[in-house]
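Justification of resources, computational component.

The compute hours requested in this renewal are based largely on the per-chain cost of generating structure records like the one below. Each record pairs the submitted sequence with a full structure-token output. That output is archived, and it is also reused by downstream analysis tasks.
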Amino acid sequence: MITIQPDSYFDALEVQFNGLALAVATGDAETLPALSEQIQKTAVSLAGVWQQWQRQGLVEPAIVERVKALAEGLQIVRSSLLRRAMLVEQALSLVVPASVDPTYAGGGNYGAGPKSSGRLAAVSA
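The structure output for this chain reads:
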């Protein structure tokens, strides 16, 4: 049986992850789906052999640190994607105002300000 070294998976995952981070930073929406699919396939493959590595004793502290670094980087890319989505939504609301449903529009019970009761006692108290 051929054992694939953990470094090869992490090297591939880091290269793909850096490409994804660059695509998010530059706003290249056309390459995001392909990069995300590549990362997903590599991560699924890595998860599939992770337990095998644990049984063989290949999981070292350096590998765990690489996983932590990738997880932290993923959080940064995720927040960048959320910021980018917010900017696109704001730009869309400027270009096509009818495309946005206002949150507190309509003046219902929960979105309206205080209403006058018409009672003089409420004003004089």
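The helical segments are 6-26, 32-56, 61-95, 120-124. The mean pLDDT is 78.
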